[in-house]
């Protein structure tokens, strides 16, 4: 009798465990769907509030508009689908509002100061770093982002990951200022960017994006082409600066395969000269003279003369 009951209990358990797992999985899937649905609803509501703020500004309800914009900014922090809006258009709208309603500028500065204080206190994540850089950009105080980067360099190894993240967010500024020593700390990231840009540019050219017209698709291809050239030259300069010649030549050839024109050769020569790699600049000049047609060589020399004159 006891054996019979034991067999019956085991049979029930064997059936019940999968059933419980299925029920648990179903509940988990339902909860995930509900969460996604809630996030979607939140994003829609915040986007509506953002557009409503424009009507408030048009009606000169500046204080209400500022409160609305700040509410959207704070409540969209963890919504990836609104990150582009949040750190670009929304901040610019608050800056423009500040021209009519000065408290809006004060609010931007307060947000920036709060972010900087959190970073220096060690309460930092990538989102905070992105916020501070974006706020300094819109406030025309990029110098403060550079000062923050300098401070992080002397705050110990614990802050090194945050310093590298901040460097990645400021690559264009650092390149403009010739601060290749900072860029060298993320050179692998720069090279990866070039590979990604190259892949996307070629993929979209061969496989047009569904739903886009030819004109729109061509515009996307041109965008990735510009990104590839910009990121490629930045990586090229940084590699030459750190005397990593083989990967620099690899980037060089990648750019020339994309655009084997006199202008591209001139850009590569200029980049080499910027980082004082004069010997390699001569190598690129010899390549140009060997590979280009007589007509293109004359155009290349014109580009070089123009850039040298500048």
Shape: globular
Ends distance: 101 Å
Rg over alpha carbons: 27 Å
Return the string of H and E elements: HHHHHHHHHHHHHHH
β-strand amount:
under 5%
* Largest sheet geometry: none
Which spans have pLDDT < 50 for at least 5 consecutive residues?
Answer: 1-36
Q: Helix amount, in percent?
A: over 70%
| DSSP helical segment count | 15
Q: Any overview of this molecule?
A:
By secondary structure, the protein is mainly alpha-helical. The protein has 15 helices and no strands. The chain has helices at 2-58, 62-75, 83-100, 103-120, 126-138, 142-153, 160-169, 171-176, 180-183, 187-206, 214-241, 245-258, 262-274, 278-291, 294-309. Helix 3 runs parallel beside helix 5 (126-138).
SSE topology sketch:
Blueprint: H1 2-58, H2 62-75, H3 83-100, H4 103-120, H5 126-138, H6 142-153, H7 160-169, H8 171-176, H9 180-183, H10 187-206, H11 214-241, H12 245-258, H13 262-274, H14 278-291, H15 294-309
Quick overview:
By secondary structure, this protein is mostly helical.
Attribute tags:
310 residues, disordered N terminus, mainly alpha, 83% helix
